[in-house]
Here is the input.
Amino acid sequence: MNEHGAEHAADARQNPEYRVAHLRDRLAAGELGELGIKIEVRGGGVLLTGTVPSPPCREEVLRAVHQELAGLAVHCDIAVAENDSPDHAEELT
Here is the structure.
């Protein structure tokens, strides 16, 4: 890669949209295959919303977010799905 190409690649890595796209790819291709997270660039920060199946899944997503988006303001609104068994029988009518 020539000097100009290396400079362009470094600029792209600093671009929030580029970093968010890379995070999306990482989450989708990773062990989680997590596609239920919406990631938006808003102003100078990033907003994450969605639901994951478990607390460990949420922690893994947050770990990836901190690695990929270090230095950006990130607001994370990721909930954990309620997968508890019902405490009573469901009545079908």
